[in-house]
Amino acid sequence: MMNNAFSRPANAIHYELLHQTPLGPQHVSSSGTATFLIEEKLERQSQLAIKVGDEVQTGQKIAPFADRPAYFVSSVTGTVAAVHPQTGDFGKQYTAIEVTLSETEELAEGPETLEPTLTCLNEWLAGTPGKPPLHLFEAVDHGIHTLVVAGVDADLLVATNQYIIKSEMHAINRGIDVLKEATGVGSVAIAVPRDLVQGFGHTSADTLKAVAPEYPAAQPRLIVYEAFGQEIPAEKSCEEMGYAFFSAEAVASIGKAFDSGRLPYEKTLTLVDKNGRKNIISARIGTPIADVLAAHRIETGHKDRLILGGPMTGFAIYDEQAPIEADTDAILVQDAADVSLVSDYPCVNCGECVRVCPTRVPVNMLVRFLEAGQYEDGAELYDLYSCVDCGLCSFVCIARIPIFQYIRLAKYELSRLTEAEASDAQ
Ligand code: SF4
Ligand code: SF4
Description:
Elements: E1 26-28, E2 33-38, E3 55-56, E4 61-62, E5 72-73, E6 78-87, E7 93-101, H1 118-124, E8 146-150, H2 160-167, H3 169-183, E9 187-193, H4 194-197, E10 207-211, H5 220-228, E11 243-247, H6 248-260, E12 266-272, E13 278-284, H7 289-295, E14 305-308, E15 315-317, E16 330-334, H8 352-356, H9 363-371, H10 375-382, H11 392-396, H12 403-425
Parallel strand pairs: 1-13, 8-9, 8-11, 9-10, 12-16
Antiparallel strand pairs: 2-7, 3-6, 4-5, 6-7, 12-13, 14-15, 14-16
Helix pairs in contact: 3-6, 9-10, 9-12
């Protein structure tokens, strides 16, 4: 179980509020290629329904596998240059489709009609900016009673969804109306920073929920706890308890598609440079991150670090050609001097990780099991699943143990075990 109340340390870190809405996001164009990643393992080229040399158009829906429904919507016009397997974090397998851009753009015909049904949303909009998690409503007995539109960003320095909630309320309201009709969900709430609740304009949502400014109050489990007064048991997810979280951008994408009849592919994201300066930018899904850096004259040197996401929970990447994906909310560039290195020092039992943990996980004990690869024991004995993935334990660890990396790996490995057991049982 989550350990009673969410605890806030006296020296809490605060989210930064986006006080002024920056003028329109600064658009970044791709310099010549776009790459689309599909979460499917490519074993043989003969599985593919596309090949090198095929032409694609902007807005075209492409299902690269002959025998699987997974698809992407091309954000560019061009020629398929390569299709290859790609390995992501923790060994996750993807298929990458690289497209070389043509000089002229051709717009594909969109869907003939978009209907407010789950089938139609799944068929066309699952990969749009914000990556709407429509699969949460797929099971007949899904039990979702509340859809929460997150107008907050869970990590520090990221302002993408705050920006969307301030600038795209019309599209969000339309998206909420569509989602209500398509899913039949009983209630829709918008979660916004506490300071924005006063004076919030018209909304199609049933309620507004204020999110406290102390990190990590914008993590979904803590929003459910603080705003809805419901504790999510450690072994359950928010969706299992009836709460589906959609980012404000995901909902706005659905609204825009229904307003325009076209599939959106322009992603909004926060770019944080080495000096901590924040820019809200937009780029087409598939644009290489190198193009974003070049457009903002950011050069990376030896040992500088590129992080997708925020400073507490983001993932470091090592290839500037990696593409912007439908759920890339932030790019953070860290100067080598600011990168805190991990070490192989042992835990000195200072207790800081336990004191800072908002859900009071006995992190110092848990990490010993996780370091030894004893994930199941760690979960059973030391409350792994009460962790809300905030990264504060790693941030304060004086021995610089990559605690949060161990936690993520453990959760990933345990989820694979559960999946394997479920498929064996079938
Ligand atoms: S990441 Fe660490 S500090 Fe945060 S909830 Fe999990 S165990 Fe606690
Ligand atoms: S903060 Fe690091 S050194 Fe201190 S108890 Fe936790 S794991 Fe050990």
